[in-house]
């Protein structure tokens, strides 16, 4: 199989495949088993549609209007209408990678054979993804229950050749024009199909998967920056000894301590405690870095467990079960995903907080153990990194606000039929913002710590080889080293891009080998 092609089968998908489609533009193909399962489920739906008994979503209205039986002549209109009426999003556009993840995950559920959608509709979904057509989806419109209704409706609208979408050239045009330009025939929805395209946790799940990928990089990056700060502060690496972490056996803690110890291997800076009053112990932000970073790592592990379960799920209502049963259910409720999205926002805020405390310590001449005030070239004439820490502190404060959980809220909808909702989409949106801010916070600590390490080296001390690799790579990425004051924002932006794209981890792993 081509490494840039993802085959959609009947048993779900993986996080790696979601990222490949969403971010890397991987092509999507339906497996033969998926096409067979789609056809079989469709036969079940068509058989039920021919019977006089009402079946939700097939021959009835939706939500609070489910009590109305819809005659055969109005059922195609019913499916079109649910897409049009539910495409009611407002606000800024959602990012392209999020929409692609959402579309791919809905295709994954459709291909499971539990939704009753025809094979040709699933193929059109794949064709739209492969053409690089991205529906315009708006920030607001999902309560995270009955699925991410408005976001998914905007995607279904594109399949119908209605509404607006972004082409592979980045320009927004009418969806009908884009489909025609790529030889894609708009779908004409029939019984059950409109509902099946809307009723899933795909938006919040897609954002969870993307956030987990980003946070994996950021937690390893934060282990590295913590090690650099420890080194620059002439701290002791003895607190990283494996036997200390073995007696409190949280897996993430041990992994973070090991990462830091490997980064510091060969350092001539650690353990000196060069003060008039020698230190017995380093400050908590330095000494407890493995405990804080490690607890966050274990939270990521829990997040991956929830994501993997959801990636294996077929979320729809009603669903087609083996033996030809079609049953209503509540699997569209986003609570499992919403809770972990909020949990991740909490640990992101705390990681940002401890990074900022180490940065502040590096800049304070009373606590930095011989470094110049604010790491300035000529303190007083130069302000050094004083305001970089202000920016970092503002980002930390914002992370704390974003850590307030969305999933504890619920606003009833649909005339009290949908009287408890998850707010999972909102949890996902704020986590996405938090992850971006966390990358900036880690980047500021990196910028300060590398400058401090260089100043120690200039004073005749020997940093660890991995530390020097981080410094060299960051400078090559456009973030300059010590010297007189200059326009600082471009340097911080370069550091942010370097961290976000995984450049720090790559540079250090060239010395240490793979880090956890």
From TrEMBL:
It is an enzyme of class 4 (lyase). Keywords: Cytoplasm, Histidine metabolism, Lyase. It catalyses: L-histidine = trans-urocanate + NH4(+). GO terms for molecular function: histidine ammonia-lyase activity. Transmembrane segments: none annotated. This is Histidine ammonia-lyase. The keyword Zinc-finger does not apply. Pfam families: Lyase_aromatic. CDD domains: PAL-HAL (cd00332). It comes from the Bacteria. Its EC number is 4.3.1.3. SUPFAM superfamilies: L-aspartase-like (SSF48557). Belongs to the PAL/histidase family. Contains an active site 4-methylidene-imidazol-5-one (MIO), which is formed autocatalytically by cyclization and dehydration of residues Cys-Ser-Gly. There is a cross-link at residues 145-147 (5-imidazolinone (Ala-Gly)). It is found in: Cytoplasm. The modification 2,3-didehydroalanine (Ser) is found at residue 146. The keyword Nucleus does not apply.
